[in-house]
């Protein structure tokens, strides 16, 4: 079963400051945690792909009627809803997908406290089953 | 013993591949079919050589076998069409390999002006470096089918351009060589700038680029820019292990452990550069290599000859008009004449560089040098928000955090 684990910019509880206000060691610990999680998933053969996206500031929205595309640049008022990154995983069960999402959510923040990042877990649609 | 011979055969095959392909394409014209034929010849060699011994003239052997496949193919197609035997190509006539020139022609073809850089890169890695489509796909993190399609589209574009396989006209050669060098340098940077941790496959790209530059140099030993590019890549690559921490995060030049730098690569780069500069036609790769050499030969960061580097960036900026070079010159100016000198150079760049993250990162660095922590934090944050490189984003965020912590 393939799942997308999605995280948005605004998916952290209020009171967690932006990363540039953390202590440098806290940033390093957070990054190492995320990398270790990816390494673990890769080792278990569960990782399809993990990517971080550039910030909403660089996002563009495109709408076209088939003739003239309309391109809207940021900043966007709803930028907290925009995607920050994702992991695509291929696992045995929904339970395992939730377990991985929980691990991602508990990545450490300031004072080594889990930031409780909200992770959206979505199963990827597959072919027709016979 | 058997293992040794197999490894020897493999090295030989890799080395021979572009020359064989070039010779076969030259003879039969069709790039795709020739490539298949060469591939078959390589497979035959890799099964036969380790047991039956390596032939005296491996390249000739491969050209002979590949040409025979091509002739077979042409004969069977001819038979299928019910026509007379048209080919009349006797495999025994296989030309002796003309070697380095053929390889160069192949590179010129792969860096054809009709191709986008991404296509030229893929085709060069496939045809000249001899990487498999799967290896190239892996290095660029795209599915194999996507890369296969990119390569075959590139071949079709070259074919459709109706330019015969051969050395471009004399007057076009400098421009084509520039394309070749640019493609090689792009391959290098693709590997160098992004290789860390799990992306190790990409580090191989830098090694491939260096190998390709050596191949070009064999064909054009007198060209100072070819030597300059090779020197630049060797000097840059010498810092590979020092430029990232164990977790893949970036370490800036001034903070790198210089004991980790690869002395052998530095010596080779410096020697190549000296030889190139001695020829008198200074170009941008030589200038970049000269700057890299200044850094590489400074025992400690504080021993760096910034005045020399400032002069070199001045020359490079005049030669290229590249605003990114101007950014680096501003840093050098700050190191020589103080942060204000650098900051005022940046003012002219606002418009030309729009909101490029590197402009903000440079300004942040210079503001920090000048003691303006608050201004530096703001600029580091803007730069972090605008970069498209994850390691760089982490680095810039950490710089802001470090100042913020000290500031509070």
User: Architecture of chain A, according to CATH?
Assistant: 2-Layer Sandwich
Structure annotation, total helices of chain A: 2
Provide the β-strand percentage band of chain A.
25-35%
Counting DSSP E segments of at least 2 residues, the number of strands of chain B comes to 0
Rg of chain A, Å, rounded: 17 Å
**Gross morphology of chain B:** elongated
Number of H- or I-type helical stretches of chain B: 19
Gap between N and C termini of chain A, in Å?
Answer: 16 Å
By oligomeric state, this entry counts as heterodimer
Tell me the number of strands of chain A: 6
CATH superfamily of chain A: Dimeric alpha+beta barrel
Distance between the termini of chain B: 67 Å
What can be said about this structure in brief?
The complex is a heterodimer of chains A (130) and B (408). Chain A is of the alpha+beta class and 130 residues long.
Write the layout of secondary structure elements.
The complex is a heterodimer of chains A (130) and B (408).
Chain A: E1 2-8, H1 24-43, E2 47-52, E3 60-63, E4 70-73, E5 83-90, H2 94-105, E6 120-123
Antiparallel strand pairs in A: 1-5, 1-6, 2-5, 3-4
Chain B: H1 2-28, H2 31-52, H3 58-81, H4 100-110, H5 117-127, H6 133-139, H7 144-160, H8 173-194, H9 200-219, H10 224-237, H11 263-277, H12 284-296, H13 306-320, H14 323-337, H15 339-347, H16 349-352, H17 357-369, H18 373-386, H19 390-407
Helix pairs in contact in B: 1-2, 1-3, 1-4, 2-3, 4-9, 5-7, 5-8, 6-7, 8-9, 8-10, 9-10, 10-11, 10-12, 11-12, 12-13, 13-14, 14-15, 14-17, 15-17, 17-18, 18-19
């Amino acid at each position: 079963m393939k799942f997308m684990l999605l995280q948005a910019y605004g998916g952290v509880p209020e009171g967690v400051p932006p990363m540039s206000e953390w202590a440098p060691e806290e940033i390093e610990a957070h990054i190492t945690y995320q990398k270790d999680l990816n390494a673990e998933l890769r080792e278990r053969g569960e990782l399809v792909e993990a990517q971080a996206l550039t910030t909403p500031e660089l996002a563009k929205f495109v709408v076209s009627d088939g003739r003239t595309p309309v391109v809207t640049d940021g900043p966007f008022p709803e930028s907290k809803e925009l995607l920050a990154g994702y992991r695509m995983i291929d696992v045995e069960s929904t339970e395992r997908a939730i377990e991985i999402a929980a691990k991602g959510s508990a990545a450490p923040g300031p004072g080594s406290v889990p930031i409780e990042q909200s992770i959206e877990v979505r199963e990827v649609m597959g072919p027709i089953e016979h | 013993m058997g293992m040794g011979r197999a490894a020897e055969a493999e090295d030989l095959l890799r080395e021979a591949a572009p020359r064989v392909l070039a010779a076969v394409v030259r003879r039969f014209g069709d790039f795709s079919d020739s490539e298949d034929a060469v591939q078959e010849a390589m497979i035959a060699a890799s099964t036969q050589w380790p047991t039956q011994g390596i032939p005296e003239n491996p390249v000739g052997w491969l050209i002979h076998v590949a040409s025979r496949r091509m002739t077979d193919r042409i004969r069977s197609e001819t038979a299928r069409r019910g026509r007379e035997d048209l080919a009349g190509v006797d495999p025994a006539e296989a030309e002796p390999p003309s070697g380095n020139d053929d390889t160069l022609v192949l590179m010129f073809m792969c860096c054809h002006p009709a191709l986008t850089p991404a296509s030229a890169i893929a085709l060069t890695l496939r045809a000249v470096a001899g990487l498999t489509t799967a290896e190239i796909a892996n290095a660029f993190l795209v599915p194999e089918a996507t890369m296969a399609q990119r390569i075959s589209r590139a071949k079709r574009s070259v074919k459709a351009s109706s330019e015969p396989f051969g050395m471009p006209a004399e007057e076009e050669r400098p421009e084509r060589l520039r394309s070749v060098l640019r493609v090689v340098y792009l391959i290098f940077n693709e590997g160098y700038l992004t290789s860390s941790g799990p992306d190790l496959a990409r580090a191989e790209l830098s090694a491939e680029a260096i190998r390709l530059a050596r191949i070009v140099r064999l064909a054009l030993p007198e060209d100072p820019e070819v030597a300059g590019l090779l020197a630049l890549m060797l000097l840059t690559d010498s810092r590979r292990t020092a430029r990232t921490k164990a977790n893949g995060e970036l370490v800036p030049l001034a903070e790198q452990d210089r004991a980790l730098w690869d002395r052998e690569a530095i010596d080779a780069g410096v020697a190549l550069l000296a030889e190139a500069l001695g020829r008198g036609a200074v170009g941008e790769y030589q200038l970049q290599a000269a700057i890299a050499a200044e850094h590489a030969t400074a025992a400690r960061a504080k021993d760096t000859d910034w005045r020399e580097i400032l002069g070199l960036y001045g020359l490079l900026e005049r030669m290229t008009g590249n605003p990114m070079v101007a950014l680096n010159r501003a840093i050098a100016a700050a190191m020589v004449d103080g942060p204000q000198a650098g900051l005022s150079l940046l003012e002219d760049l606002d418009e030309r560089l729009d909101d490029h993250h590197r402009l903000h990162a440079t300004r942040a660095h210079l503001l920090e040098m000048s003691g303006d922590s608050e201004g530096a934090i703001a600029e580091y944050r803007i730069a972090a928000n605008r970069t498209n490189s994850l390691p760089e984003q982490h680095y810039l965020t950490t710089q802001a955090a470090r100042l913020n912590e000290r500031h509070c």
